[in-house]
Specification:
single chain, 5-stranded mixed beta sheet, 10 helices, LysR family transcriptional regulator, transcription regulation, alpha/beta, about 300 residues, D-Maltodextrin-Binding Protein, domain 2, transcription
């Protein structure tokens, strides 16, 4: 028995004769007749009674054909699922608040747009929420940002939860302001000089499972604006010359687009890491591998533009 023989059998039932089934399936009539004969001989069942009015299924034949229809339905479902997997580009990723990472996501979507189906979930969050999305909410990977001094903690945390780490970028925070800001025309030697300005910040300043942990880097104690997505961040910086933000290296085209300035600050010595994490037990799918390649590419280009060294 093979799938083709079962399809011939169901077609005979549907169209009432071997010749009609052969015509509908664009098959040679002898092949359809042989398939029916093979099935009857193999299983010792008389499936049809031959008559002048056509092929009439026996009681045993009706049960046999019903089973054949169920088998064919399952085969068709398997084929459809396999086809969807081949033609569906799917990505579920959580990103730190980094423009180069969002550019990598756009690069991925531009390539994936050619797929018959596209399912993408792209979030931005701090480290705690990002880890939760990967470990408990079915996301494929997350780009974490943490202080270099916390690296041992994150290594142990990821090992304990079966997460692989892939370094993406290492940097010291840079000062991000509007090009019209007074801070864009001076060098900050002491962080206290920023107290008269307004700090824009977002993200996660605590270690996972330890919400009492204090901030790992100094922030303005008196004047802060917390934002939760980068469009608000850029809009505030553009329209509020007294605002500033600590940032990773950014693509030059983003700085030009949003009329922003990015420069080093001798007073800021915090070393940061951007690290991609994903479950060790599951191999990366082609779409995920593509995103990782594009993420590295954007990180390379961004650090090259800014003069900072990538890991």
């Amino acid at each position: 028995m093979n799938i083709t023989e079962l399809r011939y059998l169901v077609a005979i039932m549907k169209w009432g004769s071997v010749s009609a089934a052969a015509k509908q399936l664009y098959a040679a009539q002898p092949n359809v007749s042989k398939a029916l004969k093979n099935l009857e001989e193999e299983y010792g069942v008389r499936i049809f009674e031959r008559s002048s009015t056509g092929m009439i299924p026996t009681e045993q034949g009706k049960r046999f054909i019903a089973q054949a229809q169920r088998v064919l339905q399952q085969v068709d479902e398997l084929k459809q699922e396999a086809h969807q997997q081949r033609s569906c580009a799917e990505l579920r990723v959580v990103l730190t608040h980094a423009t180069y990472a969002s550019y990598a996501a756009v690069d991925f979507l531009q390539q994936a747009a050619r797929s018959e189906q596209l399912r993408a979930h792209i979030r931005e969050s701090g480290a705690i929420e990002a880890l939760d999305f990967v470990l408990r909410q079915g996301y494929h990977m997350a780009l974490l940002r943490y202080a270099a001094e916390d690296e041992d903690y994150y290594l142990r945390y990821c090992q304990r939860h079966g997460l692989r780490q892939e370094p993406i970028m290492e940097f010291s925070y840079l000062l991000l302001t509007s090009q019209d800001s007074p801070l864009a025309r001076r060098q900050v030697q002491n962080l206290d000089e920023l107290n008269d300005y307004i700090e824009v910040l977002h993200g996660d300043t605590h270690l996972p499972e330890d919400e009492s942990t204090a901030s790992r880097w100094e922030v303005n104690p008196n004047r802060r604006i917390h934002v939760y997505e980068r469009c608000s961040q850029f809009s505030i910086l553009q329209n509020l010359p007294t605002a500033y933000m600590w940032s990773s290296p950014m693509p030059q085209r983003a700085l030009e687009q949003y009329h922003l300035a990015l420069h080093g600050c001798p007073a800021q010595k915090q070393q940061m890491r951007d690290v991609l994490v994903y479950p060790e037990r599951e191999p990366l799918q082609p779409e995920e591998q593509l995103f990782v390649q594009l993420l590295h590419k954007q990180a390379d280009a961004t650090t090259k533009d800014s003069g900072w060294k990538k890991i």
